[in-house]
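Kindly go through one protein, given below as sequence and tokens. The question is how this chain folds according to its tokens.

***
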Amino acid sequence: MAADNKKATMALLFPNSSRVHDEARHTVQFWGYDAIAEVMFRITEGALARINTDALDPAGFLRTFDQHRDRILDAAQRAYARRRQNTYMLVAADF
């Protein structure tokens, strides 16, 4: 039983600081890891603009992501805790 509890509380980690703006999807994409499983996250340009109203272009979206990384990762953690899946889309309502 202890092993099951330990598995259930495995943390989602973000050791890779990489992020990329996906112009076609109007998102910034980043990755987290749960043990060896890679989890992809996308945050919409609209969500980034809600965080920082000066984020109006790809460079601004990446800058906003970097400046508010902890807040964005917290939202990613909450989304992952609600339902574990391989891909997530964070939207303005998540902030």
Notes: Strands lie at 12-13, 19-22, 27-34, 37-44, 87-90. The chain is about 40% helix and 25% strand. Residues 10 and 35 are 7 Å apart (CA to CA). The chain has one domain: 11-94.
